[in-house]
Structure formats: C-alpha cells, structure tokens
Amino acid sequence: MKSSFDHxxxxxxxxxxxxxxxxxxxxxLFLVFCIPVVTIGTSVSALYYTVxxxxxxxxxxxxxxxxxxxxxNLKNGIIINLIYLIYSAVVGFxxxxxxxxxxxxKLPDWYLIISFLPLLPVIFxxxxxxxxxxxxxxxxxxxxxxxxxxxxINFPKFLLIWLITLASLAISIVFPPSALITPLAATYLCQxxxxxxxxxxxxxxxxxxxxxxxxxxxxxxxxEDTDITGSNEEEEITG
Length: 239
Known about the structure:
Layout (H helix, E strand, L loop, with lengths): L1 H8 L2 H23 L5 H17 L5 H11 L1 H27 L9 H5 L5 H4 L2 H10 L3 H15 L1 H20 L7 H48 L2 H7 L1
Helix pairs in contact: 2-3, 2-11, 3-4, 3-5, 3-8, 3-11, 8-9, 10-11
C-alpha cells in the first residue's frame, strides 16, 4: 500500500496537479487579502515572498509562507499602501480639475500636461517597492527611496516589469477566471527581473563597504606610522 501511494505521489500527473493546486492556492490567498484594499500592498509583498520561497528556496509550504510574510509586513505594508492611495487620490483630483476646471474657471491647456507630472513618483517606485518590502528590512522611507533608485538604474527592467504587470491585469479583466493564475505567473516573471537587480545592488553595496573598510584600515595604519615616526623612541633609534 505504501509503495503504491509513493508511486502515485511520484508520478508526473500528481506533480502537475500539485503545481497547479499551489498556483491556485497562492493566487486565491492574494486575491482574498486584497479585498480590504488597505492590505493590497501587504498582499503583493506576501505573494512575492511566497513565489521567491517556492522557486528559489524550493519551499513546499506556500500557504504558510504567504501568511508569515503577510503578518511580518502588515504594518509597513498598510502604511506604504495608504501613502500611495492618498497621494494617487490627490493627483487624480488634480488631473480631474485640469480637464474640467474649477467651477466656472477653466485652467490653461498647458496645465493638462503639468497635472500628470506628479504621477511620476508613483510610476517610478511601484515596480520595486513591494518586492523590496518582502525581501529586505529597510523601513518605510528606505524601502521607497531604494525602490526609486533601483528603477532609475534599471530603467529597461523597470519598463518590462510595468509591461508584465499591465498585461496580467488586462488578461484578468478580459477573462476573470485567469485571476487564479495571472498573479503568480506575473510575479514569477517579474521576480526573474527584480532578483537580478537586487543581486547587483547587493554586490555594489558590499564592494562599497569593503572599500570603506580598506580606507579605514589604511587610515589607521597611516596614523600609527605617523605616531611612531614622531615619537621620541623613533628619534632615539634613528639617532
């Protein structure tokens, strides 16, 4: 009986079914925890962490991984999400007034273009902000500023992430049942990009820290040499 069960669990069909089941479970958890709206950011962060654990660490507990990340990043995720929601609402009203005016007052045509400029901080931080939240402990300010930096130095990757995200949203809207697959699929594709950017950033940071450490050591050695040559003991030896 045991060998028969092992034969079933090791079959290709079982592995395919298990993989599909994990995809549906993770995507369903993501969608459910997006319902309160204020937890969308935390849910995105948990989805990214779960996909990272599944495909990079070969974890077999996707539900547990999702809930672990969700709980760990709940506070900061809600705060960051509220920042984006409030800021986007203000920008949205600004764009609305640019097109429709303020009562009987019509704004100049050039202001239509200006009204869209405040959207740039959102556009240039969103692709990396929640993946950063799930993978690194940088605080709220550090997560947002680091996301902006990563987007600026990885511009082609930044555009590709937006393309994948918008395509997955469009597919989910046109064919709603696909929402049980597209969140994880899009996250997996985006993760292939973001993890390379993270790895490069970590290497640069480590190189900078090593350089600073070497400079500190060389500075200390220089001070020691100065102290020795300027001491009475050195004068006595050379004399």
